[in-house]
């Protein structure tokens, strides 16, 4: 079943697979705000104070960061894709899965701040205990352009202080909280005591997030970096769209292409995917 709904005052599509697995995606930002695996509970965190609207980024779910990650360039933080209206292209049920496709095409608004022609497409597939999210970008212009991107996934947990992230041993990471210092991960799993902001590089194998809500298997293709982020109590208190204590109830484990930007020739296409299995 695929039906139109309203979430955060915005038009959205609810996808329900034959086995009951479901997800909800806003047309605003192509922002996935809910994922409930079959027979399970909500696995994405959405702030109860989240807002959505033109130019407004939604706190939680899976924001699309494109064509710039964070403040690493001249564009607004995390680019513009997450704050613009996308178009619903199609929805279908195939092979026991519910599938949704949305797209964003360059226009006067995007060209005013990023002078390139492109088409971005977000595809989500939900079935059983799995959610797959793919971002594809096509250069529809006459000159090459470069970009960075990420799927900024907020994963719901019971308590950050008790959660553990497996699979990072031996990786190099950039510690954003320490002026981008490059460090080597010497132990695994990692736990959390508050704020963390790391970019793990050249991640070639899946990660796994363990909490009282159960284990969550996280894999990726075409997105070689894994960003691990939580604002901690002090920065959470300064965010107007996040309750002060809710930093304990999520961890962002984001798949991205950040360290080396994608250079896309005219007519070329790039795609990156992040998948979750509960």
Secondary-structure element order, as H and E? EEEEEEEHEEEEEEEEEEEHEE
Quaternary state of the chains:
single chain
CATH architectural arrangement: Distorted Sandwich
The total count of strands amounts to 20
Which fold name fills CATH's third level, the topology? Beta-galactosidase, Chain A, domain 5
**Biggest sheet, in brief?**
8 strands, antiparallel
Q: Average pLDDT value?
A: 97
The span between the termini is 21 Å
Describe the structure.
The chain has 278 residues and is mainly β. It has one domain (2-277): Beta-galactosidase, Chain A, domain 5, CATH 2.70.98. Helices cover 4% and strands 47% of the residues. It is built from two helices and 20 strands. It has helices at 108-113, 232-237, and strands spanning 2-7, 10-16, 22-26, 32-36, 64-65, 87-94, 97-105, 118-127, 130-139, 145-151, 154-156, 164-166, 172-175, 181-184, 196-200, 207-211, 214-221, 225-230, 250-264, 269-277. Strands 5, 10, 11, 13, 14, 15, 18 and 19 form an eight-stranded antiparallel beta sheet that branches. It has an eight-stranded antiparallel beta sheet with strand order 6-7-8-9-20-17-16-12, with no helix packed on it. Strands 1-2-3-4 form a four-stranded antiparallel beta sheet, with no helix packed on it. Strand 8 and strand 9 (130-139) form a beta hairpin. It is globular. Its EC number is 5.1.3.15. Keywords: Isomerase. Belongs to the glucose-6-phosphate 1-epimerase family. InterPro entries: Aldose_1/G6P_1-epimerase, G6P_1-epimerase, Gal_mutarotase_sf_dom, GH-type_carb-bd.
What's this model, at a glance?
The protein is mainly beta and 278 residues long.
């Amino acid at each position: 079943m695929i039906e139109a709904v309203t979430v955060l005052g915005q038009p959205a599509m609810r996808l329900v697979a034959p086995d009951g697995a479901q997800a909800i995606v806003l047309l605003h930002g192509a922002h996935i705000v809910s994922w409930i695996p079959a027979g399970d509970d909500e696995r994405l965190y959405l702030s109860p104070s989240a807002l959505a609207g033109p130019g407004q980024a939604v706190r939680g779910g899976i924001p699309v960061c494109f064509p710039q990650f964070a403040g690493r360039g001249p564009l607004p933080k995390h680019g513009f894709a997450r704050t613009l209206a996308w178009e619903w292209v199609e929805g279908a049920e195939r092979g026991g899965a519910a599938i949704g496709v949305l797209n964003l095409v360059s226009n006067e608004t995007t060209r005013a701040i990023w002078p390139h022609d492109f088409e971005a497409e977000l595809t989500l597939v939900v079935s059983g205990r799995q959610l797959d999210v793919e971002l594809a970008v096509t250069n529809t212009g006459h000159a090459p352009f470069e970009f960075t991107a990420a799927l900024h996934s907020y994963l719901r947990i019971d308590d950050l202080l008790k959660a553990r992230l497996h699979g990072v041993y031996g990786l190099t990471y950039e510690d954003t909280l320490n002026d981008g210092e490059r460090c080597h991960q010497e132990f695994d799993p990692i736990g959390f005591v508050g704020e963390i902001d790391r970019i793990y590089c050249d991640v070639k194998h899946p990660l796994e997030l363990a909490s009282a809500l159960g284990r969550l298997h996280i894999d990726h293709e075409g997105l070689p970096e894994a960003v691990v982020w939580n604002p901690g109590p002090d920065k959470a208190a300064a965010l107007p769209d996040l309750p002060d204590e809710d930093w304990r109830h999520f961890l962002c484990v984001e798949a991205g292409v950040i360290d080396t930007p994608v250079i896309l020739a005219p007519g070329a296409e790039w795609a990156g995917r992040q998948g979750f299995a509960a």
